[in-house]
Amino acid sequence: MKTWHRLPDEPELGAFDAFARSIDIGKLDPGQFVRLIETMDMLGKAGTGVELSALRTSTFIRIIEQASVTQLDALMAHAVLRPVVLAELFERMGRHVKPGAPDLVLHWRFTGGCEAGGYDRYQTVIENGQCSSGIVQDRDPRATVTIVPTDFLKVATGNASAPLLFLRGRVKVKGDIPCVANFPNHFDLSSP
Fold this sequence. Notes:
This protein is of the alpha+beta class.
């Protein structure tokens, strides 16, 4: 069940997007998939212009969408890439918030993290039509969501249903459950 809305078709792809879209993600084993993302991150840090943030959102989402759970688990187990990919997804959410999205604050707890209690923590704030996310949790949330990061990536790309994961006990919500259930509807993240 897709919960994210698609953007209209984008103009012609640039060379980096075309290259990224030409990769058959399914043919990569988990280690190769991690090395692909690691290479994109390394090239970006070197200032080459070939980097995750240079990809169109539709291409970035397509990579995550095509990856298997095993590939995503390996990516989220990588101590350096985990925060890079989560930050990239949150950044893209900020660029694709829908006009009229209600003001709200959510806290995220991603399992398997390195912070106290074994979580990585983030905060998302939608305020006055703007969305920002980061690791500082300085606002009172309407809800706190605890989720496996792989499940979050799958929900964000429309390949998993948050309510179904909630019913299966894979998503835990403390606070306003309807707010969390409706949260994906506040974004227009593109998908291939």
